[in-house]
Amino acid sequence: MTNPSNEAALAAGPDAVAAVDRLAERLSNARAALNAVIFGQETVIEDSMVTLLAGGHLLLIGVPGLAKTKLVHTLGTVLGLADRRVQFTPDLMPADILGSEVLEEDETGRRAFRFLKGPVFCQLLMADEINRASPRTQSALLQAMQEMKVTVAGESHPLPRPFHVLATQNPIEQEGTYPLPEAQLDRFLMQVDVGYPGRDAEREMLLATTGALEAPVPRVLTPEDLLEAQAVVRRIPVGDSVVDAILTLVRAGRPETSDIDEVRRHVAWGPGPRASQALMLAVRARALIDGRYAPSVDDVLALARPILQHRMALTFAARADGVSIPQVIGRLCSLVG
To answer: Among 4, 217, 233, 249, which has the minimal tally of Cβ within 10 Å of its Cβ?
Structure first.
C-alpha cells in the first residue's frame, strides 16, 4: 500500500518538496524562539505563525497582561519584520494611521503637496485595542488589509510586502468601545483567544522575566523567507477528503444550507466563502510548519474554531438560552471528525 506522505510528495512535485524540507527546519526554529520568550501559549504561537504563513491578519482576544503586545513585537524580531504599534483610542483619526498630505514650499516659493506616510506603512502592524477607535477609524484599515494599499486624496500608495495586521481586543472592558463590524471581522483570517498560562509555564515566566537580564530574541527568518514560505503554502496540494471536510464544515454552519437543526435555530448568520478560503490556506500553512507535504482533516478540525468563531453570530434566543459559538462549532466538527 502506498504511503500517504509519499503520495503527497509526488503530488507536490520535487521543487515543492525541496522547499518544504528547506523551510520546515527554519520555521521550527522560529517557533522555538517564540516559545522561549512567550511562555505557556504554544497554541497561540502556532496559530499566529499559521496566519502569517497564510498571508492573513490576526485578531487576538485576551485580558491585559497575557503578552499579546510582546508576542507581536517578538514575532517581528524573529521573522525580521519591521513592526509598528498603534494604540487605538476614541480620538484616533484615519490620518493618524494612514498618513496625510502636507503643503510644503521650496526655496523658489513653489508650493506642492507631499505625502507623509503613517504607521500603517510597515510589515507588521499592531492595532492595540482596535475596538476603542471609532468606526470611521476602524474602516481606514479595511482597504489596507484587503488590497495591501491605501488611498489618500485620490492617490493610491502601496504598502510594504509582506504586510500583516495583528489586532488586540480586551474582552472585559467594553465601556467606551465600538464593536468591529462584520465586514472588518471577516478580513481577519483568525480570531485567537489568549488564555492564562499553566502553573508550570507561569513559574518559568517569573524566573525568566524578573531577573537582571532577559535572554535576547534571535532573528531567525527574513521578510524574503516569509514571502517564499507564503508562496510555498499555495503550492502544497490539498486532498479531496480535506476539501470535502472544509466544504462540509463551512456550509453546515450556514442556517440557509445546513441540515443541522441546532444551526437553523441558533445561528443568525454563518461563515461565507472567505472562511473556506481561509481554511484552505491555513491547513496548508499548518502542514508546512510541521514539515508535512499535505494537510489532513485533523488540521481542519484544529483550525475550525479560530477561523469560524468570528464569522458566525447567534440569534438573541440562542444567547438567552446559553448557547455559545464554540458549542456550535463543536457540533459542526462532529460532522467531519
So the answer is: 4
Cβ neighbours around 219 below 10 Å, total: 14
pLDDT, tens digit, for every residue of 76-99? 999 999 889 999 888 888 888 888
pLDDT digits (tens, 9 = 90+) for 187-209: 899 999 988 888 888 888 888 88
Coil, helix or strand at residue 267: strand
Cell of 199: 502553573
Q: What percent of the chain has pLDDT over 90?
A: 34
Residue 57 neighbours by CB under 8 Å, 6+ apart: 51, 145, 164, 165, 166, 167, 187, 188, 189
DSSP annotation of 67 reads S
How many CB atoms neighbour CB 254 within 10 A? 17
Contacts for 150-153: CB closer than 8 Å, 24+ residues apart: 150/98, 150/99, 150/120, 152/95, 152/98, 152/99, 152/100, 152/101, 152/115, 153/101, 153/113, 153/115
The residues spanned by each domain of the chain are: 238-337
In sequence order, the β-bridge partners of residue 192 are: 60
- Examine the pLDDT at 10 and tell me if it is beyond 80: no
Q: Which CATH superfamily is domain 238-337 in?
A: Magnesium chelatase subunit I, C-Terminal domain (1.10.8.80)
**pTM to 2 decimals?**
0.87
- Please check whether residue 125 is in contact with residue 132, taking contact to mean a CB–CB distance below 8 angstroms: no
Mean pLDDT of the chain: 86
Q: Is the peptide bond before 162 cis (omega within 30 degrees of 0)?
A: yes
